[in-house]
């Protein structure tokens, strides 16, 4: 009986000890799992979130949770170890974000349909959308691509000359006022392009090229802007002899002179008038600009003899109808002597309607047309470029010859204070000029015809010098020193007051 009791006690103790060992085992695995899950958490915390896109960071968090779930389901320490290893590997397999993804280059234009030959502005913006700052190196930041062709190739290190700290969530901008390289490397945020774009469709793209401190090259391409360049229609221009009338360009005593009369068949047309030197006088309050109507007469006058000193002035007018530019005219005013002037119409032209529609004439176009007329008419000369300049040495020879032949015979003790007032060019070694001895005794404008070319002589006459002797224009023409073509050049240069 005792044996049975002892055996029962022994069995009870055996089963009690076996149950305690299983409990201890369960408690050890649970702690192991907790440590394992903390290891997965620490692995994720060791990563830099800004190195991943938002989607990929979410994937990392998802794989970490999946790894922790696998750890919790493991039935042994070895299975826990496997779950942790797998989770780390899956997390590490998530692709890190390329640094280029932090940068966004954007371009925009105000209008995408443009007239041929006209510049247009391009706004260029480079932004760092990332959460960290970069130090970038570059020589020129922005490059253009037109229809897929890059216009220039960027410069690689070590020929980089600029370093800039590009802060997180910032837009590239530089202070052009303080930048010593302004205008040298052309990395403005606003660009002017288009004057050389051919007619048709074009695609415009910009590329930003720079390097990071580790010399990693970064190239960011912008959005593409589709442009349509319209063929520039030919402007029709017709010269007219009736728009401008010049009269009374001579001295008067108290009466209005130096008159410019404006004419057009449409009384509603306005004339926007201006003079660069002198002013509109005789009741016009000394204005340099004014609006006039068809039939009006404007009177020009010098101010403090400035044009007598400068030598010339320009009168310009632009005609407008219903706010459309329909014509223009240019008059050159020349000082023939002190406070005496003449005027020449360099050009008067109209832009006629095409198919009963006004032509599209811009302020820039008519301004350029006026400047072209002024430059072309002002610089007409003889047969050779050298003939536009009369050397000081030749001037002295001519004035001495003039003094010896026309002054000294009657005034042996006179001092040579002669001067050349205007020079009209040298033709076939024949110098054409006006000197201080050439004052006319008669008043008013005198027409003079030489070789079929008409000159309107005001106060001063024209003379020529050839190999030490002086001749009138007629004599020089008769002797064969001047041709009719030469006379045409001389007339033009005389009308603009000399060259």
Shape: elongated
Radius of gyration: 45 Å
* Mean pLDDT figure: 80
The biggest beta sheet reads: 8 strands, mixed
What is the total tally of β strands?
A: 28
Number of domains: 4
Coarse structural class: alpha+beta
* Distance between the first and last residues' Cα: 152 Å
**Low-confidence runs:** 1-25, 174-190, 379-386
Summary keywords:
disordered N terminus; alpha+beta; 499 residues; Immunoglobulin-like; 4 domains; 6-stranded antiparallel sheet
Description:
With 499 residues, this protein is an alpha+beta fold. It folds into 4 domains: 22-92; 100-230, Sandwich (Immunoglobulin-like); 238-378; 385-495, no CATH class. 27% of the residues lie in helices and 32% in strands. It has helices at residues 2-45, 54-73, 77-92, 306-310, 363-378, 392-406, 473-478, 484-495; strands at 103-109, 113-115, 120-128, 134-138, 142-146, 149-150, 162-166, 170-171, 190-193, 200-212, 217-221, 225-230, 238-239, 244-247, 259-262, 270-275, 279-280, 289-293, 297-301, 312-321, 324-337, 340-350, 420-427, 430-435, 446-450, 453-457, 463-466, 469-472. Strands 2, 4, 5, 6, 7, 10, 11 and 12 form an 8-stranded mixed β-sheet that branches. Strand 23 (420-427) and strand 24 (430-435) form a beta hairpin. The longest helix has 44 residues, at 2-45. The radius of gyration is 45 Å and the shape is elongated. The termini are far apart. The model is unreliable at 1-25, 174-190 and 379-386 (pLDDT under 50).
């Amino acid at each position: 009986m005792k044996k049975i009791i002892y055996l029962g006690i022994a069995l009870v103790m055996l089963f009690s000890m076996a149950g305690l060992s299983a409990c201890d085992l369960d408690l050890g695995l649970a702690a192991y799992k907790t440590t394992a899950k903390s290891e997965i958490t620490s692995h994720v915390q060791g990563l830099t979130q800004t190195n991943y896109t938002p989607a990929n960071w979410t994937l990392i968090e998802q794989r970490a949770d999946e790894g922790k779930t696998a750890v919790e389901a493991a039935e042994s320490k070895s299975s826990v170890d496997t779950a942790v290893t797998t989770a780390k590997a899956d997390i590490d397999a998530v692709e890190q974000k390329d640094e280029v993804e932090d940068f966004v280059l954007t371009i925009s234009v105000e209008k995408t349909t443009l007239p041929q030959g006209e510049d247009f502005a391009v706004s260029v913006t480079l932004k760092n959308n990332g959460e960290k700052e970069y130090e970038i190196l570059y020589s020129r930041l922005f490059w253009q691509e037109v229809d897929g062709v890059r216009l220039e190739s960027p410069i690689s290190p070590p020929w980089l000359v600029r370093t800039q700290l590009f802060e997180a969530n910032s837009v590239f901008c530089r202070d052009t006022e303080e930048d010593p390289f302004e205008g040298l490397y052309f990395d403005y945020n606003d660009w002017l392009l288009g004057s050389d774009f051919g007619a048709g469709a074009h695609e415009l793209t910009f590329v930003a090229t720079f390097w990071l401190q580790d010399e990693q090259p970064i190239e960011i391409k912008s959005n593409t802007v589709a442009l349509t360049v319209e063929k520039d229609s030919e402007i029709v221009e017709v010269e007219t002899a009736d728009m401008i009338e010049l009269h009374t360009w001579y001295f008067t005593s108290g009466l209005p002179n130096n008159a410019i009369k404006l004419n057009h068949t449409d009384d509603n047309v306005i004339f926007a008038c201006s003079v660069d030197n002198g002013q509109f006088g005789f009741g016009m309050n000394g204005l340099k600009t004014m609006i006039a109507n068809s039939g009006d007469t404007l009177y020009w006058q010098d101010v403090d003899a400035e044009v007598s000193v400068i030598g010339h002035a320009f009168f310009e007018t632009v005609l407008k109808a219903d706010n459309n530019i329909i014509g223009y005219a240019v008059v050159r005013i020349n000082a023939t002597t002190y406070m005496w002037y003449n005027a020449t119409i360099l050009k008067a032209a109209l832009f006629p309607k095409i198919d009963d529609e006004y032509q599209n004439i811009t302020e820039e176009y008519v301004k350029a047309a006026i400047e072209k007329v002024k430059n072309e008419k002002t610089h007409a000369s003889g047969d050779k470029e050298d003939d536009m300049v009369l050397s000081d040495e030749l001037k002295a020879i001519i004035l001495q010859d003039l003094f010896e032949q026309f002054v000294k015979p009657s005034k042996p003790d006179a001092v040579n204070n002669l001067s050349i007032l205007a020079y009209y060019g040298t033709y076939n070694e024949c110098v054409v000029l006006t000197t201080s001895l050439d004052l006319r005794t008669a008043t008013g404008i005198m027409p003079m015809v030489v070789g079929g070319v008409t000159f309107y002589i005001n106060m001063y006459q024209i003379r020529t010098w050839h190999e030490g002797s002086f001749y009138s224009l007629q004599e020089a023409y008769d002797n064969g020193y001047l041709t009719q073509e030469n006379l045409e050049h001389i007339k033009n240069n005389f009308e603009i007051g000399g060259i």
